[in-house]
Known about the structure:
By secondary structure, this protein is of the alpha/beta class. The protein has one domain (2-294): TIM Barrel, CATH 3.20.20. The protein is built from nine helices and ten strands. An eight-stranded parallel β-sheet has the order 9-8-7-6-5-4-1-10. Strands 2-3 form a two-stranded antiparallel ribbon. Strand 5, helix 3 and strand 6 (113-120) form a beta-alpha-beta unit. Helix 4 runs parallel beside helix 6 (174-191).
Amino acid sequence: MIVSASRRTDIPTYYSDWMVNRIRERFVCVRNPMNPLQISRIDLSPDGIDCFVFWSKNPKPMLEKLKVFENYTYYFQFTLNPYERDIETNLPDKNELVETFKKLSDTIGPKKVIWRYDPVLLNQKYTIQYHVDNFYSLALKLKEYTTKVTFSFMDFYKKISANIVQSGIKPITDDEKDEIAKNFSLIAQEAGLAIDTCAEDIDLARYGIYHASCIDAGLISELKGHDLHIGKDKRQRPECRCVTSVDIGGYNSCLNGCIYCYANYSQNNAKLNNEKHDVLSPLLTGGFIFPELQNNPKG
Length: 299
């Protein structure tokens, strides 16, 4: 089993102590996002876990806790964008995040830290030239600390439409996507980085840009030293190439405050859910569950 931690929230930034406790107790409980009364118990014993995939914009709180995962295979999807606090409202200074990226890579190796430039959005401030200049700057800073960069173009979800309109963000045309991709490809090539896209249907193979599998059976097989045969995750969008995983996060529980995020579209709810968090609970938010559910594979 592959565990995604998490597409729904930033566990390494805000819930790393809880994650450590889950590893020590060897299980976690997860609410069904479509039916909060349905709770599943996930076994986290090393023998049953093929890999953890951590998603984060600031995994600094986890750096000193990685020894807990020494019996597990894992890697990080580290999103590092050039946006200021009008877009990513609660993140540290970008120079600090670059240093965190380097330290994480020095600790676990560049192959296990995937750089995400995700998503690309456009408005009067964040122009194509802005992205090209900053992608180049970040690529030069990170090229010795990762082997690959994954990018995507912003999707316009109804849940975040108010934030998008307020920020003047506009849909990206195919010609604009082509120009961005062409420049990103040249920069990645100069930096010696592989480059791919996340959940995009546009064909950019002419620039050496292919479709990513962010939860990647090939990479996991390489890290584990043997082949892993897991099928495509049918619960994701058709454009997504990820293999099947179990996500242990919860929606509206991340405090990064990124206005483009589909998983945490209400900062008020995120704050309330974060306040409900108990580091000792098997659930990420909402406190403890009834004892009988802790030993029941499905609640």
